[in-house]
Amino acid sequence: MPEVSSRQADPEPAQGQGPHVLPGLRLRKNRAGLPAALVLAVTSGLLLAASNPPLDIGPLAFVALIPLLATLRSVAARRGTAAGFVFGLVFYGVVLYWLIPFGVIAWAPLVVSQAAYAALFGWLVPVLWVDARPVRSAAAVAALWTSIDWIRGDWPLGGFTWGAIGNTQHGNGFLLPLASVTGVWGVTFVVVLVNALLLSAGRRVGERGRSLALAGGAAALVMVPALIPLPATVGPRLDVAVVQGSVDKRQAAGFYLRSRQVAENHIRLHRSLAQDPPDLAVWPENSLDVDPTADPGLAAEVTGVVRAVGVPTLAGAVTDAPGDRFLNQVLYYSGQGRILDRYSKIHPVPFGEYVPLRPILGWVEQLRYVPRDIAPGHQFHLFDVRGVRVATPICFENAFPDLFRRFVADGANLMIVATNDSSYADSAASREHVTMSQMRAVETGRWVVQAAISGESAIVDPRGRVLRSTDLFVPTILRFDVPTSSARTLYVRLGDWFPWACGFAVAIGLAAWARRRRGSGARTPPAGEREGAVPAQQAPLPISGGGEPQVLVILPTYNERETIGRVLAGVVAVGPEVGALVVDDDSPDGTGEVVAVMAEHEPRVHLVRRSGKLGLASAYRLGFAKAIEQGVDVVVEMDADLSHRPEDLPRLLRAVAEHDVVIGSRYVPGGQVSNWSRARVALSRAGNGYARLALGLPLADATSGFRAYRRPVLEKLLAEHISSDGYAFQIELAYRAWKAGFDVAEVPITFREREHGRSKLSRRIVAEALVNVARWGLRDRLRRRSGPRVPSAPSP
Question: Is the pLDDT of residue 178 over 70?
Answer without folding.
Answer: yes
